[in-house]
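Progress report, Aim 2. The chain analyzed during this reporting quarter is listed below.
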Amino acid sequence: MVSSILKTEKLCKSFSNGGVQQHVIKNLDLEIREGDFTIIMGASGSGKSTLLYALSGMDKPSMGKVFFDGTAIQDYSNDQLAVFRRGNCGFVFQSIYLLENQTVLDNVLTGALIVQKNSPELVAKAKELLKKVGIKEEGWKKYPNQLSGGESQRVGIVRAIINDPKILFADEPTGQLNSASSTDVLDIFTEVHKNGQSIVMVTHDLKTALRGTRVLYLRDGGVVGDYVMKPYDEDDIKERRRGLTAFLEEMGW
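Predicted structure tokens for the chain:
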């Protein structure tokens, strides 16, 4: 039986807008299973990124509980949350946030060194991961301004997975990439998922959502649709697209 790695109970998140409380997430009960590639979709303003940040400990809920691998994290202090995220989470964003004054290899190692000890094994692991995502040795000494958008995002993924996170969180990771680079990046996500990585990803893009094994559709602060798919296989892409498109149309996407 597959265990839940994330669970929420009566999760709520509100923001004050001109003195008026805006309720973005409302009494949400949700379970995410270990090993799933979970996609979060919904209209603009439906709370997709807000939910991602609450699940990952990047933001605290207004009310309710978040259980990460069985541990309640909603009452952690900011310092405790920072330590928790470093040890358990990887993050890939639409804006990649590489350190401009550091090389590709140093960008990958900077985050890893906070968690792991500097060692030849760690450096070797970083190099091997860079090779796997198509960043060859001549690219390791480049700086971010010398990289294409797709190359930068691949470096960002390596930085996110080098500490073997329990969950990889991604927020519109292909949002600023062209079609070819998007496909390359999605292929990497598919590969790490096949290797057992749990992933939670926010997207508005059908091409991206097709890579998931579960699609949650948000509306008015809650999950109104839950669609399950088999692991991604290019050979059944037409049937896969038809099924997901029908679900999204039913949701009003």
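The CA atoms of residues 151 and 166 lie 24 Å apart. The mean pLDDT is 93. These observations will guide the mutagenesis work planned for the next reporting period.
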